[in-house]
Design a protein that fits this description.
By secondary structure, this protein is mainly alpha-helical. Helices cover 62% and strands 3% of the residues. It has a two-stranded antiparallel sheet with strand order 1-2. The radius of gyration is 27 Å and the shape is rod-shaped. The termini are far apart.
């Protein structure tokens, strides 16, 4: 139980019986909580690493585990996902515009017969 309190969920095994006594019910609740936390932590790990690698086509593998107060964690992950995806999409659009501007600039350098005349006119 000490390892569990130190956040070491993945190497903690509770070998106490679950039964109808108060202690047994508490053991059952701790086992369920540990199972849920392992699933959520594993899911968050996978989701965040996938997003860090640029994969935004991912989905939670255990959406049903995010109940109660865990729901806000899931909502935060969804918000991060959407914001990062939107931001990267905008950066990609801006990059395409910059590429077109650069291509136009290179064409003008290659074809110097076209010159600027007046304020903002291009012939």
């Amino acid at each position: 139980m000490l390892r569990l309190s130190e956040g070491r969920l993945f190497d903690t095994h509770i070998n106490l019986p679950v039964d109808n006594t108060e202690v047994g019910s508490t053991v059952g609740a701790i086992k369920e909580m540990t199972h849920r936390l392992k699933k959520i932590i594993g899911d968050m790990h996978s989701l965040l690493f996938a997003m860090a690698d640029g994969n935004f086509r991912i989905k939670s593998s255990c959406r049903e585990m995010y109940v109660g107060d865990y729901q806000s964690i899931f909502e935060s992950l969804v918000q991060i996902h959407h914001k990062l995806k939107d931001t990267l999409s905008e950066v990609e659009k801006d990059l395409r515009v910059c590429q077109r501007l650069c291509e136009g600039s290179l064409q003008r350098k290659r074809n110097p017969s076209k010159k600027f005349h007046g304020a903002g006119k291009f012939n």
